[in-house]
Design brief:
186 residues, alpha/beta, Restriction endonuclease-like alpha-beta roll fold, 40% strand
Length: 186
């Protein structure tokens, strides 16, 4: 019998000072049995960093949600979908292959990858030339130390505050806070 995903609930208060976006989001994250707390929390951080686009691209009339992630490789880790069902932003975390990213670029207006583990530099050196032609793609590097610290904030029921200021994210809860300064590679 297959092991089922573990469900996590997060109440996320976002204060994106850079973009003038302030909102509360009640989120449900399904953590696949093979997914780590670190990866799940990077998905949540990526969603917080991109949340302002709900107003910027969809004028508040869209859905910001987590996808099936590891359960379905054709589904984004997180996305912003407008009221017509069009994918405006497709978010992936980790070190995806070039073919799924090319496919994602054909399905969405914008694709953002957040790579985060110790092997990210090796992944990027091997795939950079293959991804250089994808105009819709952005690649961001979350420092390994910061992504590892995020796992400390993982709880089945989370109350989180996300502050985006000067391009950096600070994610806080009663368990502490993590400051993330992502570096844009593409």
């Amino acid at each position: 019998m297959a092991i089922k995903s573990t469900i996590f609930k997060a109440n996320l208060q976002i204060a994106d000072i850079d973009h003038g976006y302030y909102a509360d989001h009640a989120l449900t994250l399904a953590r696949h049995p093979s997914e780590t707390d670190e990866r799940m929390m990077v998905r949540l951080a990526a969603l917080a960093i991109s949340a302002h686009q709900l107003n910027d691209l969809c004028h508040g009339d869209g859905t910001l949600a987590f996808g099936a992630g590891l359960s379905d490789p054709d589904d984004p880790d997180a996305s912003l979908t407008d009221f017509t069902g069009r994918k405006r932003v497709w978010i992936e975390v980790g070190q995806p292959e070039d073919k799924p990213l090319t496919k994602a670029c054909s399905k969405a207006d914008s694709v953002i990858v957040y790579c985060f583990n110790h092997a990210a530099e090796i992944w990027w050196k091997g795939i950079e030339t293959k991804l250089s032609r994808l105009e819709k793609l952005q690649v961001w590097r979350i420092p390994t130390e910061a992504s590892q610290e995020l796992s400390r904030l993982a709880e089945r029921s989370m109350q989180l505050q996300a502050t985006v200021q000067e391009g950096a994210l600070t994610l806080s809860s009663n368990l502490g806070s993590v400051h993330i300064e992502a570096v844009r590679w593409k």
